[in-house]
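hi! just following up on the protien thing from before. the input was this:
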Amino acid sequence: MSLDSAEFRRIMGHLVTGVAVVTTVDPETGRPCGLTANAVASVSLNPTLVLACVERDADTHDCIERAGVFAINVLREQDERVSRRFASWDVDAKFEGVAFHAETTGAPVLDEALAWVDCRVHAAHDGGDHTIYVGAVEAGDAGMGVPLLYYRGGYGRFVP
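and the predicted 3d structure came back as:
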């Protein structure tokens, strides 16, 4: 017997997560792609690997498949608006007014990100309705600030 999806979501909502935007670029059109994600994590120090779980129905999923690269952009506490925008299905408006630049792989890195890593797809694993992309980190950086958090369906802050 397994839990229904609504109950599973309610239970897992009790895990505080950081909020990130996973970005890539469609190699066929040059259009940047991105989505909000909280299922991201470091995997290994040697080699440096991270993971991002991406819903198979998301436009960004197909962009990552074609490009073979992605960046994880950790959002700052004041970036709830950015999180909500990249969580929408309005593909054409996601990057409007959001400053970004290309790094080593060509994946877009958000200029205002608290931290970021730029990756090449190292492996892809079936994760049910998601693909678990493992990325080999080629570049990254972090600044000072406070991260945006997500808990039980709402946004919050961490004060060290």
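The helical segments are 5-12, 59-67, 80-87.
DSSP finds three helices and twelve strands in the chain.
cheers
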